[in-house]
Specification:
The chain is about 35% helix and about 15% strand. A six-stranded mixed sheet has the order 3-2-4-1-5-6. It has one domain: Rossmann fold. The model has no long low-confidence stretch (mean pLDDT about 95). The two termini are about 20 Å apart. Strand 2, helix 3 and strand 3 form a beta-alpha-beta unit. By secondary structure, it is of the alpha/beta class. It contains seven helices and six strands, in the order βααβαβαααβαββ. The protein is globular.
Length: about 200
C-alpha cells in the first residue's frame, strides 16, 4: 500500500492557530493558492497512477474542497466521516495558549478535550478507516486534517494513537505511508509541493 496523506489548505483559523474540528470553515485565498502547486506536484510525482488512485476525504469543507480542487471535478472522492478532525469540544476555536491560560498543564495528547475527543478516540476512528480498506488498495490519497492525519499515520505503522504527537503537519502538505520490504513505514512526512 502507498497512502498519501494530504492536509487541507489554509483556513482563517489554521493561520491564527485556533483549534478547528467541527466548525466548517472554508479555505482562505492563501489556502486556495496552495492547491495549484499541490495538484501539479502530486500529478508529477504519481504520473499515470494519479488517475487510478483511490481517493478519500473528510466531509468537512476545507478537506473536501482541497480534494476536489487538487483532483479536478471528474474524480470520484469517497467521503468518510471517520476522517473528520479530532473533536476539540470546549476548546473549539481556542489557541493552545488560550487554553493554557486557565489550564497550564494541558496536553492534548494526554488529556484530550472536555466534551470532545481524546487521541485514543480518534485512534479508534483511524483503525476503523484502515480496517475498512479491505485488501489494501495499491494507491490511496487521503484528504484530512492535522491531528487526524498524525494519528492515522501512527496507527497505520502500529504505534499508539498518542504517538501521533511525534509528527508535525503544515497546511497543504503531503505525507506518505508505504509498505517497504514487508514493513509499513513513514516514507515521507510534511512535504510541501516543491519538495515532492
Amino acid at each position: 500500500m502507498r497512502m498519501f496523506l494530504i492536509r487541507h489548505g489554509a483556513t482563517q483559523w489554521s493561520a491564527t492557530g485556533q483549534h478547528t474540528s467541527t466548525t466548517d470553515l472554508s479555505l482562505t485565498s492563501e489556502g486556495l493558492a496552495q492547491l495549484g502547486p499541490l495538484s501539479t506536484a502530486l500529478r508529477e510525482a504519481l504520473g499515470e497512477q494519479f488517475a487510478t488512485a483511490v481517493v478519500f476525504s473528510s466531509p468537512l469543507t476545507r478537506a473536501l474542497a482541497t480534494a476536489q480542487i487538487v483532483l479536478g471535478d471528474d474524480r470520484e472522492v469517497r467521503v468518510d466521516p471517520n476522517l473528520i478532525e479530532l473533536n476539540y469540544g470546549d476548546y473549539e476555536g481556542l489557541t493552545s495558549e488560550e487554553i493554557r491560560d486557565w489550564r497550564p498543564d494541558w496536553d492534548i495528547w494526554r488529556d484530550g478535550c472536555p466534551r470532545g475527543e481524546s487521541a485514543d478516540d480518534v485512534g479508534r476512528r483511524a483503525d476503523t478507516f484502515l480496517a475498512g480498506l479491505g485488501d489494501d488498495p495499491e494507491l490511496l490519497l487521503v484528504f484530512s486534517h492535522s491531528h487526524f492525519i498524525r494519528i492515522l499515520a501512527a496507527r497505520a505503522i502500529g504505534l499508539d494513537a498518542r504517538q501521533g504527537q511525534i509528527f508535525t503537519l503544515d497546511t497543504a502538505t503531503v505525507s506518505l505511508v508505504e509498505d517497504v520490504r514487508g514493513k509499513r513505514v513513514i516514507k515521507r512526512w510534511n512535504m510541501n509541493p516543491t519538495s515532492l
